[in-house]
Write a structure and sequence with these properties.
Elements: H1 5-8, E1 19-25, E2 30-36, E3 39-42, H2 50-60, E4 68-69, E5 75-77, E6 84-89, H3 93-105, H4 109-129, H5 135-146, H6 152-158, E7 163-168, E8 179-182, E9 189-190, E10 193-199, E11 205-213, E12 215-216, H7 217-222, H8 227-231, E13 237-245, H9 252-256, E14 259-265, E15 271-277, H10 285-293, E16 302-305, E17 330-335, E18 339-347, H11 358-367
Parallel strand pairs: 6-16, 8-18
Antiparallel strand pairs: 1-2, 1-5, 1-13, 2-3, 3-4, 6-7, 9-12, 10-11, 10-16, 11-13, 14-15, 14-17, 17-18
Helix pairs in contact: 3-4, 3-6
Length: 371
């Protein structure tokens, strides 16, 4: 790739055979780019935003290389702009059990270790083998209610309706190599490495990317009504490095079979490795997208986090305390066809404040003659 080390960082090995959308920061402002056939194109004069490029791709069945080739160094941004950012939770059995543990522990990590074995023994096998929304799921629900083992998290794990929530505001996501934030008053939190579906204004999937749906286990464990505070904080959502568009070589089947690896490396020498696979998800990604779109429209498109299998329990400081982030942690999420997303953990209070909003974007695009 020509003189663009920032863009080369994070691309998958087969990037020369794929089509990727992204955004870079230039001296003029945020600019959508297209990578195809090993070349990088500035697409701002074709469409001023990534959302517009995706809509054009949907309407016309492909994107014309009408942009100019990028030759200068650039800073990589989150690959989305005007799209709504939605997320699904409790879509894997392991995450369902961990949410029940948080709930029973009331967000206190000191109680989690004691509860983990009991809940796994009581619920693990049944939750893993039950198809959400099936008659068998309803029968299991009645049994668990009778045994005082039911939870609101099990409702979305095996019930007919998936959990779908808004992760963060439009333009609030961060991208490759950016700092990612956790609340300064959280004492139990973790990254959530996920495959993220990307859809156009018609709600149909056009591609995928990687994401980190940072989660505060202590806040949500105290009350599910604190989900917004647990999930939506400054720099608490990273995406990237690029959106890989579906084509003959990359399809929804690749999303369904994707393996995701994650490494956390702390400045204290701590290292944690985890792996997950989309093959273990309890609801199909297209079903999740359909539920997000049910009786709702997204004229600028949306991205949808599909949930995570990863719930770190490896002790960090002392036996039984489990995992929580420390400032300076490097989180690396990778998948063979989507590339590698890397971020550094800071508190949301110390990360650079989010100041570039929608009005700023449109003023910038107007000034550049792109509207």
């Amino acid at each position: 790739m020509k003189n663009i080390p920032a863009l080369n960082r994070g691309l998958p090995e087969d990037w020369r055979s794929g089509t990727f959308l992204g955004r870079i920061e230039t001296s003029e402002g945020p600019t959508p780019i297209l990578i195809r056939d090993g070349r990088v194109f500035d697409m701002a004069k074709v469409a001023p935003t990534v959302a517009d490029l995706i809509a054009q791709n949907v309407r016309e069945g492909g994107l014309e290389l009408g942009g100019i080739e990028v030759l200068d160094e650039a800073t990589l941004l989150s690959p989305i702009d005007l799209q709504c950012v939605k997320a699904c939770g409790v879509t894997f059995a392991v995450s369902a059990l961990e949410r029940v543990i948080e709930e029973r522990a009331r967000g206190d990590y000191r109680k989690a270790q004691e509860l983990r074995g009991k809940i796994e023994d009581a619920l693990g096998g049944s939750v893993r083998t039950t198809v959400p929304g099936s008659p068998e799921a309803d029968a299991l629900k009645q049994t668990l209610i009778g045994e005082d083992l039911w939870s609101q998290y099990l409702e979305v794990a095996i019930g007919p309706d998936a959990e779908v929530f808004t992760k963060c505001p439009v333009l609030a996501t961060v991208g490759q190599d950016a700092d990612i934030g956790v609340r300064s008053d959280s004492s139990w939190n973790n990254p959530e490495p996920e495959v993220v579906m990307v859809a156009g204004p018609d709600g149909k999937a056009v591609g995928a990317t990687l994401g980190n749906d940072v989660n505060l286990r202590d806040f949500e464990g105290r009350s599910a009504l604190l989900l917004g505070k647990a999930k939506d904080n400054n720099a608490s959502c990273s995406l990237g490095p690029f959106i890989r568009l579906f084509d003959d070589g990359y399809t929804i089947e690749d999303v369904r079979s994707a393996d995701v690896a994650m490494t956390i490396e702390g400045t204290d020498g701590y290292r944690l490795e985890g792996h997950s696979t989309m093959r273990e998800i309890s609801r199909d990604p297209e079903d999740l997208l359909g539920q997000a779109m049910s009786e709702h429209q997204y004229p600028d498109g949306l991205v949808l986090f599909c949930g995570t299998l990863f719930a770190p329990t490896q002790d960090r400081d002392e036996p039984g305390k489990g995992f929580t982030h420390k400032v300076g942690d490097t989180v690396t999420i990778s998948s063979a066809r989507l590339g590698t997303l890397t971020n550094t953990v800071r508190t949301s209070a110390e990360v650079a404040p989010w100041t570039f909003g929608l009005s700023d974007l449109f003023q910038n695009l107007a000034k550049r003659g792109l509207l």
